[in-house]
Every structure is written in C-alpha cells, then in structure tokens.
Amino acid sequence: MIWCSGWRLASAVSNAGGLGIIGSGSMYPDVLREHIRKCKAATDKPFAVNVPMLYPDIDKHMATIVEENVPIVFTSAGNPGTWTGHLKQHGITVVHVVSSVKFARKAVDAGCDAVVAEGFEAGGHNGREETTTMVLIPMVRDAIDVPLIAAGGIGDGRAMLAAMALGADGVQVGSRFACTEESSAHPAFKQRITEVGEGDTVLTLKELAPVRLIRNKFFEDLRAAYQRCATVDELKEVLGRARAKKGMFEGDLVEGELEIGQVSGLIRDQLPAAEVLQRMLAEYEVARQALCSSPLIGA
C-alpha cells in the first residue's frame, strides 16, 4: 500500500470502525512523522504503521514511531526478531506479515502479538512460495496460537467470511482500499484498477523481490528481459528506481510499476473508505446468513 495509504486513508478506515494502517515504506522519516500527527488529529481511534524491514532508514522510522506513541506496528519483508522486542518494550503491539508457515512460526517465536498470513494473490511485494490464501490460512492456523489475520485476494464480504471459515480471526484488505477516495494513489492509477480483468496482474521479479503488478509496457520490458535470460543485474537495470512511485503516485501507466492484487478484477468503482468497509460488513452478513440457511450446512 505504499503511495496509497497515508494519513487520510488510515484515519478514514479507523473512523469507520476498521484499523487504518499508514504505509511508511515510501516515506522519509520526517514525512512519516507528519502523517502520524495528521492521523492523530483526524481520528481518536487506534491506527497502525506498516514498516517494511528492508527500508534503508528503518532505525529512524522506529524512533519516530516510538516518539509519536504509535499503538500498533505491522512489520513485513524481513526478520521480525530485529525490532519486535524493542517495540514491545515501549508498549507497542507488533504484527508481522508472512507468506509461509515457517515464517509465521518465526514471528511467534520473536514475540509478535499477531500474524498476517498473506497469499500470493496479494498485490505489491509478495512471498516466493506462491501459496494461495485458501491453502496458507488453515496451515498457519494449525501452526500458531496467536491471532491470525488473513490477507491476499480479500476484497468483499464473501472473501472475508471464507477467511474466517479457514481459521482467520480477522482480515487485512489492501487493493480494495487503494481504489478509494481517500487513497493517495494517482487518479489515473485508480481508474486503471477499475478496468483490470481476470489475468491482468502477474507475479514477477522473484529474483529480486517478488511483486504482483498490472501488465503494461514496463511489464513487457521485464518479460523481454526474461526471454533473453537477463542476469539479476540486468533486471535491476530494467527496474530502475522509483518505478512504483512513477506508476502509482505519479500516474504513469506506461512506464510505471502498477502494484495491485488479483482481486482488482472485482473492483469497478471508487468509493469513500467508510462505504467500502460498510459494504464489506453487509456482504459478510448476507453471505453468513445464506451459508447458515443452506440445507447442506443444516443436514
């Protein structure tokens, strides 16, 4: 959710009854501090900050989070043991994002309070295992005893109910909120999300950091590089710098990296974040009641 989830989206989700998350991976430390303070001013509800462990100035981000008394931190893309203890010493709840049972266990061993298990349907950076959410959630549920949050391919109430049935205690939703009025993504990128069809996203760059994105000229350039058996250094050269910013924040749909999940094939409108959350909860209840009244369930 880098370039999509700043203080406006995080506060809107929290005000609507969810847990809004500021995506700090695209922010300089002073920018993160500004977003945290603006989020505090916009909501009196809890919110969180997501910190990718590969962020180059992560020590500055963690210092800012502690100084600003952020209540919850989601860590991802790295070893949870590095910062979990430090954050918990300051009374911060820590949740780690994983893509496998192995790393879920490591997160629990590191002292994380909860785990997000994310299937490879998810947008943006992803796991190399390519395990789907439907397979991953029950495996992780059987392996850990802390709260489990499902992510990847969840964009409506039906998917939310399915995740709960598989053993999740909650869900994390990205792509659906990337296409909301409060998202900081470029309007052109939001519009492109509503046009995505089945099969229009692909997981690539596994040699560097796996990422799911929309097929466009940049992706075709990557595919051509793979066809000529490009080295890792050559792939880095094709990737260049700030591709995600170019596509998602600046709206370059041709040369930019357009990170979004498979569930984008179901997204056809841009709504306020509160309406998205309310709709999901209503869909969840309709699906739950339909399932409970099914003759197969009652048999």
List the helices and strands and how they pair.
Blueprint: H1 7-15, E1 20-23, H2 29-42, E2 47-52, H3 58-67, E3 72-76, H4 84-89, E4 93-98, H5 101-109, E5 114-118, E6 124-125, H6 133-143, E7 148-151, H7 157-165, E8 170-172, H8 175-178, H9 187-195, E9 201-204, E10 211-214, H10 217-227, H11 232-239, H12 243-249, H13 273-292, H14 295-298
Parallel strand pairs: 1-2, 2-3, 3-4, 4-5, 5-7, 7-8
Antiparallel strand pairs: 6-10, 9-10
Helix pairs in contact: 1-2, 2-3, 7-13, 10-11
Descriptive tags:
299 residues, alpha/beta, TIM Barrel, 7-stranded parallel beta sheet, 14 helices, 10 strands
Question: What does this 3D model show about the protein?
Answer:
A 7-stranded parallel sheet has the order 1-2-3-4-5-7-8. It has a single domain (7-184, 264-298), classed as Alpha-Beta Barrel (TIM Barrel). The protein contains 14 helices and 10 strands. With 299 residues, the protein is of the alpha/beta class. Helix 1 runs parallel beside helix 2 (29-42), helix 2 (29-42) runs parallel beside helix 3 (58-67) and helix 10 runs antiparallel to helix 11 (232-239). The chain starts with 6 loop residues before the first helix and ends with a helix. Helix content is 44%, strand content 14%.
